[in-house]
Amino acid sequence: MEKSSSPEPKSTGSSILLHQIWNWADERLGLEPIVQLALKKRVPEHRHSFWYYWGGITLFFFIVMCFSGVLLLIYYHPGESSYESVRQITYDIKFGWLIRSAHSWSANLMLASAFVHMFSTFFLKAYRGPREFTWWSGVGLLLLGMIFGFSGYLLPMDDLAYFATKVGLSIPTVIPEVGPWIASLIRGGPEVSAFTVSRFFALHVVVLPALFIPLLMFHLYLVQKHGMSIPESEEQKPESERKSVPFFPNFAMKDLAMWLIALNVLALMAALFPWGLGPAADALKPAPMDIHPEWYFMSSFQVLKIFGQWFPGELGEFIGLAVFNLGLILWVLIPFIDPSSKNGRRSRLATYFGLLALFILLATTIWGYAVLPPATH
Ligand code: HEM
């Protein structure tokens, strides 16, 4: 078999050895085409290039989340002793509080950067063909990421987690006929209990990673296959006027710098605002007045509340759920709806839709927090 050409042999002993190891591995694993693909990749340079960092930042927080999650797994016990094990991690085990804080903060920062990444790819119109599957796999990743958050929130089983999960799991009950059955299946009984914690634990550490990781690989493979998209403003320019830099090493170095900034932000948040642990859940105690879901569910929570006030009984919440899902379907189908996907001509329609979606998301989230009663615990 022909020897591959990378990395280039140098005259020093160690580089010759490295070259030999590389050739040995390449002959057995066929690495050369992968390296060539990576070396071929170029990143467009224009005034919106900043937004190309956000997928990588999301990836970084996901990696931290996985590592810190594995460390937590060593001491966490699901079921009856879940609260006690989290109490030990937080107060008894050396640096346990920091690992737990880094895990929770990286999960939240991952979701926040995934939202930024989604809206930036939306406004850059990166969902247009041939990147439809990149868009759909991205939506899948965000939804799975939110379920990660929801299932992880219950695991300490403190009072906030207990009541917030109780409220969250009452949402599917508004679906006629099957709703109560779905809620009971997720809870593992009529009430949120240690059984629910065990189910959420299996979901959080086995089922969700088993779905998320292959979907993420698919997403990254597509990014590599299609290269980075360019916004409409760049498409207007003749090809000779478009600028780009090689991904390796130029853009990768900048990506790395962004990861360093992300690490600093994470370290500051985790150390200065350690993740709290409330009193153990007590089903007999009244629910705190200010009970609310995590920030990434606040918008849907508020939409349900608004519709619930407009219509009698469970009908309002059902309509709210339907409206929310309709918006989500439109969002998923945007590659087909945006006229510029079909005729290649510039169209503002999708941009207005994106601005409206962003406005509704932000406004209902702020509104949701603004109308919360003062904390009672
Ligand atoms: C949640 C985990 C996610 C990870 C780790 C991730 C990772 C990445 C990475 C590393 C890139 C290449 C660099 C970049 O454009 O930033 C990328 C590109 C892309 N992502 Fe994601 N992504 C995620 C979620 C999403 C979501 C929620 C969407 C949209 C619904 C999305 C849609 C896209 C699209 C369309 C591209 C191609 C961008 C282009 O060609 O210009 N991704 N993603």
What can you tell me about this protein's structure?
With 377 residues, the protein is mostly helical. The protein folds into two domains: 1-40, no CATH class; 50-289, Cytochrome Bc1 Complex, Chain C, CATH 1.20.810. The chain has helices spanning 13-29, 32-40, 54-75, 82-91, 96-123, 132-154, 159-170, 179-187, 194-226, 232-235, 247-272, 295-310, 315-332, 334-337, 339-343, 349-370; strands at 42-45, 243-246. A two-stranded antiparallel ribbon has the order 1-2. Residues 1-7 have low confidence and may be disordered. The site of protoporphyrin IX containing FE has 26 residues, from helix 3, helix 5, helix 6 and helix 9.
Present as ligands are: protoporphyrin IX containing FE
CATH topology call of the largest domain:
Cytochrome Bc1 Complex, Chain C
* Name of the CATH class of the largest domain: Mainly Alpha
Please indicate the count of domains.
2
Category by helix and strand content: mainly alpha
Largest sheet at a glance? Answer: 2 strands, antiparallel
State the fourth-level CATH superfamily of the largest domain. Cytochrome Bc1 Complex, Chain C
- Helix amount, in percent? 55-70%
For the largest sheet, list the strands in their spatial order: 1-2
Please state the CA-atom Rg, rounded to the nearest Å. 24 Å
- Architecture of the largest domain, CATH level 2? Up-down Bundle
Give the termini separation. 71 Å
Number of strands: 2
Please, what is the average pLDDT?
92
Shape: globular
Please count the helical segments. 16
